[in-house]
Design brief:
This protein has helices at residues 61-77, 92-102, 127-139, 223-231, 251-259, 285-290, 301-312, 322-325; strands at 5-10, 17-19, 25-27, 45-50, 82-86, 111-114, 148-152, 155-158, 163-164, 173-174, 182-185, 188-191, 211-215, 235-240, 264-268, 294-295. It is an alpha/beta fold and 327 residues long. The strands form four sheets. An eight-stranded mixed β-sheet has the order 4-1-5-6-7-8-11-12. A four-stranded parallel β-sheet has the order 13-14-15-16, with helices on both faces. Bound molecules: asparagine (ASN). It comes from Lonepinella koalarum.
């Protein structure tokens, strides 16, 4: 049997950076990862390329579309058996989830994404180990059909729920409420969770991309919401309080957005748990839901923003977004 062919697409981030003598970390003209692959232990035939060399706070929608196109070409046309993407960790979860929703793949070929918290020449650098993790996951037959997977620190997480939880700790990537969906062990991968549904909404062109993300706080007023209603945007995601409640002082802003036909998606600013329409008081979840605000189950704000982006840019627009946010 031939060895599996994997493509590694580098996009930048700390995993491709180096530290200087003053302790400052920055991108290097030559990606240090490119020359280190022989140190890894795997049975695959590897190809690699630098698509970008960007810190992940520089990554935006146009980069997501380029990564998506490259992955689709690699899998659908060049018939790679798996794709590994290296990426900065700050926005890794967003790139992962965009790809998870929007990739058009003809087969269930694994796509994994990884990064590092310590640059290539730092003591305890985690980049090579994480790359090895991502390769092992991409090579596993068990990874097929699970959507885009984040492999780091010997854990596997679904793109949908994983989030960066610590600024610098190597164990930063976690899946709140559920935990990882699998582990990477010395003898291979071990999965113990499946999503109930793997969603895919292929996107070709993005025309509606002005989707704003706002965090609620005690005493929040209507200022920002009214500004958005007045100037116009394609959608608003609000990180609400607790199980999905808002201060009554911002309800005029909600009404203004609804009068302007701007869809509003509600997530919780709480780290764990899901939003629920529990409370029946002004600004309480029950009343917000009755007013037509879309509640999500378990997505954080930045992920809900991506889901709204992808759903609003389908060829056939959905008459009701709500059904898709319940998945
Ligand atoms: N650890 C990292 O990769 C953080 C870096 N600022 C980035 O996202 O590019």
């Amino acid at each position: 049997m031939r060895n599996k062919r994997l493509l590694i697409i580098h996009t930048g981030g700390t995993i491709s950076m180096s530290e200087d003598e003053n302790g400052k970390v920055s991108p290097t003209p030559h990606n240090p990862l490119l020359h280190n692959l022989e140190r890894l232990n795997h049975p695959a035939q590897l190809s690699q390329e630098n698509l970008f060399n960007l810190p992940s706070p520089h990554i935006n929608l146009s980069h997501w579309l380029k990564i998506k196109a490259r992955v689709e070409q690699a899998i659908n046309l060049e018939k790679f058996d798996g794709v590994v993407i290296t990426h900065g960790t700050d926005t890794l979860e967003e790139t992962a989830y965009f790809l998870d929703l929007a990739l058009t793949l003809h087969v269930n070929t694994p796509v994994t994404i990884t990064g590092a918290l310590r640059s290539s020449n730092e003591l305890g650098s985690d980049g090579l180990l994480n790359l090895q993790n991502a390769i092992v996951v991409a090579l596993s037959e068990q990874s097929r059909g699970r959507g885009v997977l984040v492999a780091m620190n010997d854990e596997i997480h679904h793109a949908k729920f994983v989030t960066k939880t610590h600024t610098t700790n190597v164990a930063t990537f976690q899946t709140p409420t559920l935990g990882p969906c699998g582990l990477i062990t010395k003898s291979g991968v071990l999965y113990f969770q499946h999503l109930t549904e793997y969603e895919r909404y292929p996107v070709e062109h993005i025309t509606k991309s002005n989707i704003q993300l706002i965090k609620a706080y005690a005493g929040m007023d209507s200022f920002l919401l009214e500004q958005l209603a007045q100037y116009g945007c394609d959608g608003v995601v609000i990180e609400a309080l607790g199980a999905g409640n808002l201060p009554p002082s911002c309800l005029a802003g909600i009404e203004a957005l609804q009068c302007a036909n701007i869809p509003i998606v509600l997530v919780s600013r709480a780290f764990n748990g899901i939003t629920q329409n529990l409370y029946d008081y002004p600004g309480g979840g029950k009343q917000l839901k009755q007013q037509g605000i879309i509640f999500t189950s378990g997505l954080n704000g930045q992920k809900a923003r991506i889901k709204l982006l992808v759903l609003l840019n389908q060829k056939q627009p959905f008459s009701t977004l709500l059904d898709y946010f319940n998945r």
